[in-house]
Specification:
Elements (H helix, E strand, L loop, with lengths): L47 E8 L2 H17 L3 E8 L4 H13 L6 E2 L1 E2 H8 L8 H6 L1 H10 L2 H11 L8 E6 L2 E5 H7 L11 H15 L2 E3 L7 H4 L1 H5 L18 H15 L12 H6 L3 E6 L3 H7 L6 E5 L8 E8 L8 H11 L2 H9 L9 H4 L2 H4 L7 H5 L4 E3 L6 H17 L4 H12 L4
Parallel strand pairs: 1-2, 1-3, 7-8, 10-11
Antiparallel strand pairs: 4-10, 5-10, 6-8, 6-9
Pfam family, one: SBP_bac_1
Keywords: Cell membrane, Lipoprotein, Membrane, Palmitate, Signal
Protein name: Sugar-binding protein
Length: 443
């Protein structure tokens, strides 16, 4: 249940979809489909071994292994043979999977981030889930009733080219700011009770913090991770990289240009470290040399590892015209080539249970649980920074991360344009104008 989870795997450096290849962001080094029994029908619960893969570093793999073991306790006739691939980003992960697919490897289940859902469902490699859902309508209806309605709506709208259902939506991520409260207190800057602030208030806080403590306000990416580097700034100013249907580029709108200009001003003022080089943001936050760190749920694991949960508070992303956040979520499909679809559907049904959601949150899940009740529970909010409830609240004003089929080329143009603007290689407007022109033939 790791949709776009970075740190240590940057939560969504947008999946580079490798041109026209049928990229499956999913399983790891497991050759062959699951074992015995179950057949291809929706009947029965199935048995045998399911092959499954996901993107995850060592910490995330430990959480997944515990999750799979818990599933096996509930369904002892079904075992999960899974591999977590510790790729540096979704692009590398996708490249690995694509190579294995080209070599003839088959899988039962994959964990697909938003960036890969439309591409995968367009390649005729996924099993339509509608008849499985009809058979277990009560179970699925109860799940959908318990999650934010956006997840069901977006999964169908953006992950299905033909109206059929290919994914069960899972946990998601939004973008917020993790703030070192000791740094703010030392600088005499108060954080609002409601967790809200504007761009101007954010920059003003950074100027005081830098002058009084020498700490940076925040760490800014160069655009290689659009989910976190670019989209929050655009969305909080009413802009985006693409239109809502992902068919037209909007990267050079006046609002987008204003957002890039503001972010560049933070760099120019010395409120963020220079782009390039190595900067361990979590470690610098712990040392009091960085005031804020942007991220989804995943930095919470770093806060725990560094033992600074109690001195960190989550704030919403600062706004210009209104609240906004990119949203990326897990999609769980069954592959058409699976020889054990009944068992695969049993696993997907289990993922929809409250027990599975609570268990994953408890063992260190790196996203917001899809079930609203679990996201609001102590299971998710305990041993986490104050303000963690803002992660789930962000979905109400969130926007799906734009994920067209030509994702690799789209990402390259967007990332290059943003980096050009921030580094001053070209003026901001010229940088985004050029990127926007490159996007047009790709959509």
């Amino acid at each position: 249940m790791v949709p776009h989870t970075p740190p240590p795997v940057p939560r969504r450096r947008v999946l580079q979809l490798l041109g026209g290849a049928a990229v499956l962001p999913a399983v790891g080094g497991l050759a062959g489909c699951g074992g015995s029994g179950g057949g291809n029908g929706a009947e029965g619960s199935g048995k045998g071994t399911l092959t499954l893969a996901y993107l995850g570093d060592a910490t995330q793999q430990a959480a997944f292994k515990a999750l799979f073991a818990d599933f096996n306790k509930a369904h002892p006739d079904i075992k999960i043979s899974a591999t977590g691939i510790a790729s540096g980003d979704w692009a590398t992960f996708a490249s690995t999977i694509s190579t294995r697919l080209a070599g003839g490897t088959q899988y039962d289940i994959v964990d697909v981030a938003t960036e890969g859902q439309l591409l995968m469902s367009s390649k005729n490699v996924l099993e339509p889930l509608d008849r499985y859902i009809a058979k277990d309508k009560a179970v699925v209806d109860a799940y959908y009733a318990g999650i934010d309605p956006h997840l069901k709506e977006w999964t169908k709208k953006y992950g299905s080219p033909d109206g059929r259902t290919y994914f069960i939506p899972g946990g998601y991520n939004s973008m917020v700011l993790y703030c070192n409260t000791e740094v703010f207190a030392k600088a005499g800057v108060e954080l609002s009770d409601d967790g809200q602030w504007t761009w101007e208030q954010f920059k003003a806080a950074g100027e005081k913090i830098n002058a009084r403590t020498g700490a940076y306000l925040t760490a800014l990416g160069d655009g290689a991770f659009p989910f976190g580097d670019i989209m929050p700034w655009l969305l909080t100013n009413g802009a985006s990289t693409l239109s809502a249907d992902w068919k037209q580029p909007t990267f050079n709108s006046p609002q987008a240009i204003e957002a890039a200009t503001f972010v560049k001003s933070l760099l120019d003022a010395g409120l963020a470290p220079k782009l390039g080089g190595t900067f361990d943001a979590a470690a610098q936050l712990a040392k009091g040399k960085l005031a804020t760190l942007g991220g989804g749920r995943w930095p919470t694991l770093d806060m725990r590892r560094l033992k600074i949960v109690d001195k960190v508070r989550i704030m919403s992303w600062p706004t210009k015209t209104g609240p906004g956040s990119p949203i990326g979520w897990d999609g769980w499909p069954i592959l058409r080539a699976s020889k054990n679809k009944a068992a695969a559907w049993t696993f997907l049904k289990w993922l929809m249970t409250k027990d599975a959601s609570e268990f994953y949150a408890k063992v260190g899940g790196t996203n917001v649980p899809a079930l609203t009740s679990v996201a609001a529970s102590s299971t998710f909010l305990s041993d986490a920074p104050k303000g963690s409830e803002l992660l789930a609240a962000a979905i109400a004003h969130g926007t799906p991360i734009p994920s067209p089929k030509q994702g690799a080329a789209v990402q390259r143009a967007i990332s290059a344009g943003w980096k050009s603007a921030l580094t001053g290689l070209k003026p901001v407007k010229r940088s985004l104008d050029a990127a926007n022109e490159q996007l047009k033939p790709l959509l």
